[in-house]
Amino acid sequence: DGPWLILNGNPESSITICWTTATMKESILLWGKSESNMEYVLSSPKSKKHSITIDNLSPDTSYYYSIDENFTLYNNGEVFSFRTATTKNSNNTVKFIIAGDFQPKNEYTLITNGIIAEQIDRENPAYIIQLGDLVQIGSSGKAWHNLMKSLPVMASERPVLSAIGNHEYYIFHKNNNFRSFFPYDFPKDKSCYYSVDIGNIHISFLDPYDGGPAGMSSKMTDEQKQWFILDLENAVQKGVDWIF
Question: How far is CA 138 from CA 59, 191, 203, in A?
Answer without folding.
Answer: 35, 15, 24
